[in-house]
Amino acid sequence: MKKKKIFLVNLGLRRPLYPLATPPMGLLYLSAYLRRELKNIDIFIINQRLENCSLEVLCKWIQQYNPDIIGISTLTTFAYLLPSFVPMIRTACPNAWLIVGGPHASAVRKDVFKDIDIDILVPGEGEIALKQIVESFPEKESLQKIDGIYWKNDAGEIIANSGLLSMIENLDELPFPAYDLIDLPRYWKHQSIAPIVRRKYVSLVSSRGCPYQCMWCHSIFGKKIRMHSAERVVDEIEYFGKKYNIADFEFLDDNFNFNPKRVIDIVELIHKRGLKTEVAFPTAIRGDIVTQEVIDAIHSIGTYLCGYSLETGSSRLQKFTCKRLDIPKFLKAVEITAKKNIYITGFCMMGFPTETEEELEQTIAVACKSRFHTASFFNVTPFPGTPLFEWVKENRPEKLEKLNYNNMDLSAMNVNLTDLPDEVLFAYQRKAMKRFYADPVRLYRLLRSYPKPLLLPYYIPIFVHRATKGLWNSGAPNC
Questions:
Q1: Which of 448, 447, 445 shows the shortest CA–CA distance to 459?
Q2: Which of 38, 71, 303, 465 is the S-S candidate for 99 at Cβ 3.0 to 4.6 Å?
Q3: What pLDDT is recorded for position 87?
């Protein structure tokens, strides 16, 4: 029997001010699951963000592979590439099924079909659905049996299947991500999610879903958190550590420390097996549930970086946005982490709907009071599929009219959801940068704790861009 050939694409480009090129974890998990469940298949993965190639070059690779099924994953900021890319693929591979999944598909769902001629859309966790799609090929009518997907029948009608997309309840049933399908050492030359360039590492995801209700967040994996067991997490660390001769692991969970006991169990198993590790948590730690015991534990396995998300220093906005962070507990967590000489990068957001100048000042004050080594002050951006987007659509629809996601990173977006003038909001962002980095003690701590201090000049253009945001607009005030 002829093998079914599957080509998976992570669509998007590296930008000078957002130069990330990270392993496409979603595609790696999909591929591993398909290979285990379906024996008669071949899979090829291309990450355009790594290649930084044109759509034409990408299309040529696909044409040479001549796949039966083409799967595309993309963020909303790169969805503008789809209307140009899809017709190229249709011409190059007219008989292939074309599937779109990933964050953008999960956010806008059926609306993806308005602009592009695709066959299937998978909105959410894709392993089980994609397996069923591959099994269905080439009989399109059998797609109607797959819960939760959208597809176009031979008459051109868009069908929204009833039911919910099937999800994997026990994550330990998933195989290890298929790192053998990518050239991992090439990623080591670029910045990962952690703000550190040029290091040998493996990215891991030890849980899916998040029980919190932050209004700016997508819900691709649902609001119920599902976690790998401690044994499974350490099995992956041991396996990939030996396979690639590395010790550095980067966890990309939404909430790694949701279950403190699991954290302790993971750490104890690492010690029991005698594994030498270095660990980064660029996005995975919720600050106000951190305990001294958890920090002591993760420090003992070589944790050198934690990302902590404050978002806003306003208690009112914490409630309004449904994050409900306990700010005093958060600051205490940052403090006990800093005492371990763990490098801390902080994330703040400015420009929430109804936010006042006083609340902008509160965010700056809390960030400057904290023991963050570095901090980013991003624009609040309403992405489709989030409660924030729906709130703005209902209450401030004019704010969406000039919103442009195309090829943007969050620090460059000029959206303003407040009732303040643009120049005022951007002036507060500049003020935040100046006040935060003008502290000589902080700069000393940054130089002391940053894992690769000689590479800090790499970030100067990014810093300058953020520190001068909106400065060249006429009439822009300085706070």
A1: 447
A2: 71
A3: 97
Q: Which domains does the chain have, with CATH numbers?
A: 4-160 (3.40.50.280), 191-467 (3.80.30.20)
Statement: residue 472 has pLDDT above 70: no
Is 365 in contact with 327 (CB distance < 8 Å)? no
- Answer whether 352's CB lies under 8 Å from 320's CB: yes
CA distance 298 to 265: 11
What's the pLDDT score for residue 370? 98
What is the distance between the alpha carbons of residues 449 and 288, in angstroms, rounded to a whole number? 23
* Across 350-372, average pLDDT: 97
User: How far apart, in whole angstroms, are the C-alpha atoms of residue 271 and residue 145?
Assistant: 47
DSSP state of 154: T
> What is the greatest pairwise CA distance in the chain?
70
* Cα 41 to Cα 35: distance, rounded to the nearest angstrom: 7
Encoded tokens for 55: 């759509």
- Of 102-111, 244-253, 262-271, 450-459, the poorest mean pLDDT is in 450-459
Which residues, 6+ apart, have CB-to-CB distance to 77 below 8 Å?
Answer: 12, 405, 406, 407, 408, 409
pLDDT given for residue 476 in this prediction:
45
pTM: predicted TM-score of the whole model, two decimal places: 0.93
**Contact between 209 and 225 (Cβ < 8 Å):** yes
pLDDT of 35 reads: 97
Give the SS3 label for residue 250.
strand
Q: What 3-state class would DSSP assign to 18?
A: strand
* Backbone phi and psi for residue 403, each to the nearest 5 degrees, phi listed first: -75, 125
